[in-house]
Structure formats: structure tokens, C-alpha cells
Design a protein that fits this description.
Blueprint: E1 7-9, E2 15-17, H1 22-35, H2 46-60, H3 72-78, H4 86-96, H5 100-117, E3 131-137, H6 145-153, E4 159-163, H7 170-177, E5 183-187, E6 190-194, E7 198-203, E8 213-220, E9 223-231, E10 236-238, E11 242-244, H8 246-260, E12 267-272, H9 283-286, E13 290-291, H10 292-296, E14 314-319, E15 322-328, E16 339-344
Parallel strand pairs: 3-4, 9-12
Antiparallel strand pairs: 1-2, 3-16, 4-6, 5-6, 7-8, 8-9, 10-11, 12-14, 13-14, 15-16
Helix pairs in contact: 2-4, 2-5, 4-5, 6-7
């Protein structure tokens, strides 16, 4: 009797174990039978179909959405991958409405989303590299700066950038990291810690009136690398003003100009850019550099907010250097996740 619980009747009247997928096939056969001969199958669900087409157009033409009204284009681009959530919702609605038109229409946003982001779903990380870098917005209100510093140092990174440093917290970070990093410099609210010598250290003017960016030459065993650290201004979403990012955009242009004028051919940018690689407002930077996450990471690498990451606004970008791997580090006491990457300096031009 116990065996019969795992049996199902077959067409020949016998009892055989149910094959994997048989239940799904029966469900689909029943669905097709219900829909066969339904004269309204192509007429129902037109609203769902229209929404699917609209979603596909938004993702496909996101770069054409104007920023004139509340920087709407940049807002959509910041959370562009999350538009894919609406695809299964529309798919369910199409089934509920028993609409062939809607089902076909839902294929459009599915194809567009996969075309945009399918490459990020694979693991592109390599095993090589001769320099490990990391960056972390430590949060000015961090309740445990010493613990955060130790966590980042424990990552094994050769070079670490920290953003949102406060005057009172700087000595804490310095003390917590001094045993791991022999060289460091703090410029305004950003700092750079390195196992290798730092020269040519200077603040970078990103048009804010105070220092939130810096540049230094790291003399690594494989060669000299120009390392930039930046914390671009925050953006806000306001009901009366939309996505306010004018100051951030101005700073991004200034940072891009500084990187473009860099004399060294090998450049690394570490920092909180308050924007994603999709955001057109960062074109002055992103057009001349590669994201290590996009080139050698696994997944989207979202870094903010740490409690439920929804966007990668903490960036590691390179120019004249080959990315080998890129990843996020475990959560600290900050509201951002640290991010790290391993790059190959020796084989770079």
C-alpha cells in the first residue's frame, strides 16, 4: 500500500512511477485544451500587451528618455535592471487573461532585458592579477569605524580607498589600518591606504568647494598606477523636483576631465560615484574607463543600500589595465557594501 502513494494510473490501466515533468505536461495540455477554440484569445489582454510593449520600449530606448524633467532618464537608468521584475508580473496577467496577444507581447521586454543584462548573469572572474584594490564608503555616522577598518583590511586588498571620512574618525581608521598599510594619505573626506609607496598625492577639484576627490601614484611591484579616489555628491529623489543630480553631474564632468588629463597610462578609479554605469550623467568618466564588475565580475554587484542592495553606485573602474575579477565584500557597519577587484598591471600597456 505504501508503494501506491508514488504511483499514477497510465493510459494502459497499469501503475508506473510518475515521470519528472509529467504533471507540468498535463497542466499545459489542459491549458491548451481550455484555450483551443476560444474566439477571444487574441482580443483579450490588450492592456497587458500594451504595457509589455511600453516596458520593452523604456528599456530599449532608455538613453533617449529626456532628463529635462526631474532627470527622469538618469533615474530610470539607475534602477534599469529592476525593470525586469515587471516581466513575470505581466506574464502572470497574460495567463490570467488567457490572452495569446499578451503572451506574445511579453516576449518583447524579456528579449530586451536579456540583451541588456544577460552578460552580467555569468561568472567572468579570472584567477590572475597582481594588484587587489578595494573601495568603501564608510558612512560618516558609522558607529564602529575601527571594526569597519579591520573588516576592509582583512579583505587582503593591496590598496584601499575610503570615502565619507570625518575629522574625528580619521585617527581611528589610521590606527586600525596602520599594521596592514604602511602608506596612506587623507585628503578632505577621502583617503587612500596602500601597502606600496604613494607619490604625487594631491586633491582633485571636482567643483564642490571642498575636497572629496584625490589622486596618487601607487608604485606597485608590477609598475606605477595612477589611483583616483572620489566621492561624488549625493542625489535625491524629491516629489517636487524629481531626481535632483545637477551638482553630482557637474562633479562627474570635472572628474572625467582630470582623468582624461592623467599622464600615466594605467589608471584606477575607486569611489562612491552616486550613480551606476548605465547613468548617462557619468559619461565623462564611464566613456573612458571600464567597470571591473562589468568586465570580470559575477552578477550585478549591487552595493547600496547594504541592508538590501539595489544599485551599484560604488565603483571600481580601470583604464589601461586588465580586470581579472571583481566582487562585493561582506557588510560592515556602513550603509554601503565594500567592493573589491583584482587587476593585472604587469601585462597592461
Amino acid at each position: 500500500m505504501a508503494q501506491q502513494a508514488y504511483m499514477t494510473e497510465t493510459d494502459n490501466g497499469g501503475s508506473d512511477p510518475e515521470r519528472p515533468g509529467a504533471r507540468f505536461r498535463r497542466l499545459m495540455n489542459r491549458l491548451v485544451a481550455d484555450w483551443r477554440g476560444d474566439r477571444l484569445i487574441w482580443r483579450r489582454g490588450l492592456v497587458v500587451a500594451a504595457l509589455a510593449v511600453l516596458l520593452a520600449l523604456i528599456m530599449l530606448l532608455h538613453a533617449q528618455i529626456p532628463n529635462a524633467i526631474g532627470n527622469l532618464g538618469s533615474l530610470i537608468e539607475t534602477f534599469l535592471p529592476w525593470l525586469g521584475i515587471f516581466v513575470p508580473v505581466l506574464l502572470v496577467l497574460a495567463f490570467v487573461r488567457k490572452s495569446a496577444t499578451a503572451l506574445i507581447a511579453v516576449l518583447l521586454p524579456s528579449i530586451v532585458w536579456l540583451n541588456l543584462f544577460s552578460s552580467l548573469l555569468s561568472d567572468k572572474a579570472g584567477t590572475g592579477g597582481d594588484l587587489t584594490v578595494a573601495t568603501h564608503n564608510v558612512n560618516a555616522d558609522n558607529a564602529d569605524p575601527a571594526g569597519t577598518a579591520r573588516d576592509v583590511a582583512a579583505s587582503g586588498a593591496d590598496v584601499v580607498a575610503l570615502e565619507e571620512l570625518t575629522t574625528s574618525a580619521v585617527p581611528v581608521y589610521e590606527k586600525a589600518m596602520e599594521s596592514t598599510y604602511r602608506y596612506h594619505s587623507v585628503q578632505g573626506t577621502v583617503g587612500l591606504w596602500s601597502k606600496y609607496p604613494l607619490t604625487g598625492v594631491k586633491p582633485v577639484d571636482i567643483k564642490l568647494g571642498w575636497t572629496r576627490a584625490m589622486r596618487a601614484t601607487v608604485t606597485a611591484p608590477a609598475g606605477q598606477v595612477a589611483v583616483y579616489v572620489a566621492h561624488l555628491p549625493s542625489v535625491r529623489v524629491k516629489l517636487e523636483a524629481g531626481f535632483t543630480a545637477r551638482q553630482r553631474d557637474t562633479s562627474a564632468n570635472a572628474l572625467g576631465e582630470a582623468i582624461g588629463d592623467e599622464k600615466l597610462t594605467r589608471v584606477v578609479l575607486l569611489g562612491d560615484l552616486n550613480g551606476t554605469m548605465n547613468d548617462r550623467a557619468l559619461n565623462a568618466v564611464t566613456a573612458q574607463m571600464r567597470s571591473t564588475q562589468g568586465a570580470a565580475g559575477s552578477g550585478f554587484g549591487f552595493s547600496w543600500p547594504a541592508s538590501f542592495p539595489m544599485a551599484r553606485i560604488d565603483q571600481i573602474m580601470v583604464k589601461g589595465i586588465e580586470p581579472e575579477s571583481s566582487w562585493t565584500l561582506p557588510q560592515t557597519s556602513s550603509d554601503h557594501l565594500p567592493v573589491a577587484a583584482r587587476v593585472n598591471v604587469a601585462t597592461s600597456s
